[in-house]
Every structure is written in structure tokens, then in C-alpha cells.
Specification:
The structure is a single chain. By secondary structure, the chain is an alpha/beta fold. Among the domains are: 115-276, Aspartate Aminotransferase, domain 2 (3-Layer(aba) Sandwich), CATH 3.40.640; 304-438, Aspartate Aminotransferase, domain 1, CATH 3.90.1150.10. The protein contains 14 helices and 14 strands. A seven-stranded mixed sheet has the order 3-9-8-7-6-4-5, sandwiched between helices. The termini are far apart. The structure holds pyridoxal-5'-phosphate. Pyridoxal-5'-phosphate binds at residues 120-122, 146, 195, 199, 230, 232, 252, 254, 264, 266.
């Protein structure tokens, strides 16, 4: 940023992004429209694109300015001299119509002031951390986190002098407070980073308790650490963290939002102020999503509620059946909370139990592998949130690099299988799991 003042900025009339409707329809006669309705058209005016009902894919690396003054004004937005990003289209590393329509629609689900799209969930997380954290700062996080997020904080940011402290996902109010207090003594607490439920243990974090502790401990100070939460497993349908006091919501949109296992994308939602800071970092390092994937995401958002609702209903049926099978040790599914504290967090924060859960089989790796190899409908693959059911073995796959001690502490055992239920017929899935359990032998 230069020292240029607001008075020196161009006075030209803002040239709005042409595809954005001047007055988006968010309500009809006082009735606030639901996200499922807004996903079909919000943020796009067909008359600005030759009447094309669906937004065209804008495959261009750069955009022609209406005038030199407009170009200057747009760059004031891109470089952060004027908050809120560019008011027009500039260059595809900064913005693009497909990305902006998808960002507007994503914001709807959490009533966020603004949203940003990224080339993956990890690039969303990395860009956010780079934007908010400086050498010497402390990050407080819940544990476990998605393995790559843990590596990014511990191994990569650690190389640049960033410190971290964690608390277990299911921690009590008091435990959360104690860790925050200790972190405050170590340096500037730049960020509180949560993942709820934790991957792959499915343990929920008490976000409201974290907010209350943060507010008390940092009251009156000149810096209140923002709270960011990875909502990939439950969002955007079953958990709305901004409504519970989080400042930023982070997504791997590769999962439920993309929903068809055919794209990789990430998102960050939150207040204008925080999003502006993160946007500047995205503009600099170029972690924006490409137009084609943004278009695919728009297609996916149209059916998000249908897909997630169906997958959630299927998971409830499948889990109710699985937990009574003789080959099953336990099913860790949010619909059957492990203890009263988890049940309480669930009641206060969630509107649904999701469709991803952990299945602990009787036996070890051999039995788990036999079960996985026998599946006929469910696919043996990592990831989650797609229309098709997926099953994987965290200890040998996504969490292979986690040290044995930590795996043990987190209950990532050799007998654990992670399952993401899709939109198939629930009874067909039960038939598949029944024959796979029988194939385990023993
Ligand atoms: C909870 C969670 N956060 C972040 C990520 C990273 O997302 P991506 O693979 O889109 O980079 C994943 C991927 O599995 C995840 O499960």
C-alpha cells in the first residue's frame, strides 16, 4: 500500500461490474427468500449476457477498461487503497464474473457480508493464515485439524517463527480458557483456528465457549484475535458458525458444496473488513479459483440443499443399522453423541448430523481392509460430501503421516473406517455394508 490518501483517489463514478444486477431480489413482499431459491439466479442478470439463462464461462485472462480513469479506480480496489476490492473486472488473478457470482451465492448460506473463492480448501486456509499471521505471533487451534492444516501451521509457518498452541476439540470451557490465557503470555495471539467437527474424529468444538472466552480475555485490548472455523463437514447446511460468533468460515468446497467429486475449490466467508485483508493476499499470491471450476460450483450450489438433505437422511438410516451389527465396535456419528457435553454442543450449534462418520470395526487393519475391499456400491476413495458414498482408512491413508502416538491419542485406530454417505438409496447402501461386513470373516 502507498501513502496515497482518500482525497487523491480517482473521483470517477464507480463502474459496476456489468453482470451484477443493480438491485438483487432478496425478498418478495416482505418474505425473505431462502438460500435454495437464491441459488438459481442470485448475482446474475441474463440480460447482460445475451439472455443466456446460465452465466457463460468467462475464459479470459484480462478485461478491457471503459476508460483510463476507470482502470485506475479498479486498481485502487485491487491494491487495497480503496476497501472492498475492484469495482470492475480487471485481471483474472484478481476477479472474474463466474467467481463473483459464486461468491455472492456462497455468502447467502451464512448471511456473510462477503466471500472469496480459492483454488482449493488448502489454498483458502493458507491465504487466510498468510494474511493474518506474522512472525512471533501465536495461533491457538483445536485439535486434531485436517492433517495438511496441521502441517501448514506447525511445520511451515513454524519455519517463519509462528508459534502455536492447541486444545482438544471436545475441550471444556475451562480448558479452552486456560490455553488462550497461556497463548496470550507467549505473544500476540493472531488467530484462533477451529475445525468442527474435527477430521477424522468427528468431535465437535464448543464455538460459543471459545467466543465467550476470547471476548473476556481480550476485552479492552488493542487486538482481539479473530476466530476462524473450518466448516467443511457440516456446512453450509447444518452449521452456521457466523451466527454463533465466529469471524471467518473456511471451506473445502471440494466436499459438500462441490458435491459431485469433480472439482477442487475452497472458500472463506466473513465480514467485509477481514475479507478485504484476505483478498489483498489472494490478489498478491494468485490463489483464486479458475472460471471453469467456479461455473461448476454454481451448478452444484443449485442442488446443495437437496443433496445434503438426502445424504443426511441416508446417513441417519445407515448409522442406525450399522451400530447394531455384531462386527461393529462403535459408530462415531454426530447423531449419537458420545457424551452429554458433545450432545449439548450439538444441540446449541448444529441443525443436522451430517453424512460423514467413523466406523470402528471389531479387529484391526486386516478386518478393515477386508471390509473396504468387499464394498460394491461405496467407492474406496478419500474425500467426502459427494453424491456417491465413499469409504477410506484414515490410519493408512489421509492420516498416514501422523505420528503413531498422536494417532493413538486421537483414536485413529487401524480398525477405523471413515465413511461419507451419498445420495444413493439408503437400503441399497445397507445391503452393500451388510455383505462387506460378512466378507470380513472372523
Ligand atoms: C476438514 C477439511 N479441511 C480442509 C481440507 C482441504 O481441502 P482441499 O482438499 O479442497 O484443499 C479438507 C480435505 O479433505 C478437509 O477435510
Amino acid at each position: 500500500m502507498t501513502g496515497e490518501t482518500e482525497a487523491e483517489l480517482t473521483g470517477a463514478e464507480p463502474s459496476r461490474n456489468r453482470r451484477r444486477p443493480k438491485a438483487p431480489i432478496m425478498e418478495i413482499e416482505g418474505r425473505k427468500l431462502k438460500p435454495a431459491t437464491l441459488m438459481m439466479g442470485h448475482g446474475y442478470d441474463p440480460t447482460l449476457s445475451e439472455g443466456s439463462l446460465k452465466p457463460p464461462i468467462f475464459l479470459t485472462s484480462t478485461f478491457a477498461f471503459e476508460s483510463a480513469a476507470a482502470g485506475k479506480r479498479h486498481f485502487e480496489g485491487v491494491t487495497g487503497l480503496r476497501p472492498g476490492g475492484a469495482e470492475g473486472l480487471v485481471y483474472s488473478r484478481f476477479n472474474g464474473p463466474n467467481q463473483e457470482i459464486a461468491e455472492d451465492r456462497l455468502s447467502v448460506w451464512e448471511e456473510a457480508e462477503d466471500a472469496l473463492l480459492f483454488s482449493s480448501g488448502m489454498s483458502a486456509i493458507a491465504t487466510t493464515l498468510l494474511a493474518l499471521v506474522q512472525p512471533g505471533d501465536v495461533i491457538v487451534h483445536s485439535a486434531p485439524l485436517y492433517a495438511a492444516t496441521e502441517s501448514l501451521i506447525g511445520r511451515i509457518l513454524g519455519r517463519f517463527g509462528v508459534q502455536w498452541l492447541d486444545f482438544p476439540a471436545g475441550a471444556t470451557d475451562g480448558e479452552i480458557g486456560a490455553v488462550l490465557e497461556k497463548a496470550k503470555g507467549m505473544g500476540r495471539v493472531a488467530l484462533i483456528y477451529l475445525e468442527s467437527p474435527a477430521n477424522p474424529t468427528n468431535v465437535l468444538v464448543d464455538l460459543e465457549a471459545v467466543v465467550a472466552r476470547r471476548d473476556t480475555l481480550f476485552a479492552g485490548g488493542d487486538h482481539q484475535p479473530p476466530i476462524a472455523i473450518d466448516n467443511t463437514f457440516l456446512g453450509p447446511l447444518w452449521h452456521h458458525p457466523l451466527a454463533h460468533g465466529a469471524d471467518l468460515v473456511i471451506y473445502s468446497l471440494t466436499k459438500y458444496a462441490g458435491g459431485h467429486s469433480d472439482l477442487v475449490a475452497g472458500g472463506v466467508l466473513g465480514s467485509d473488513a477481514l475479507i478485504n485483508t484476505i483478498r489483498l493476499m489472494r490478489n498478491t499470491i494468485g490463489t483464486i479459483l479458475d472460471p471453469h471450476s467456479a461455473w461448476m460450483l454454481l451448478r452444484s450450489l443449485e442442488t446443495l440443499e437437496l443433496r445434503m438433505s438426502r445424504a443426511g437422511e441416508n446417513a441417519a438410516k445407515v448409522c442406525a443399522w450399522l451400530k447394531d451389527q455384531p462386527q461393529v465396535e462403535k459408530v462415531v456419528y454426530l447423531g449419537f453423541p458420545d457424551n452429554e457435553r458433545q450432545a449439548d454442543i450439538y444441540r446449541r450449534h448444529c441443525t443436522g448430523a451430517g453424512s460423514t462418520f467413523s466406523l470402528y470395526l471389531k479387529g484391526g487393519e486386516a478386518e478393515a481392509f477386508a471390509f473396504l475391499d468387499a464394498l460394491k456400491i461405496a467407492k474406496l476413495a478419500v474425500s467426502l460430501g459427494g453424491t456417491e458414498t465413499l469409504a477410506s482408512h484414515p490410519a493408512a491413508m489421509t492420516h498416514l503421516s501422523v505420528p503413531a502416538e498422536r494417532k493413538k491419542a486421537l483414536s485413529i485406530g487401524d480398525n477405523m473406517v471413515r465413511i461419507s454417505i451419498g445420495c444413493e438409496d439408503a437400503d441399497d447402501l445397507i445391503a452393500d455394508f451388510a455383505q462387506a461386513l460378512r466378507a470380513m470373516g472372523g
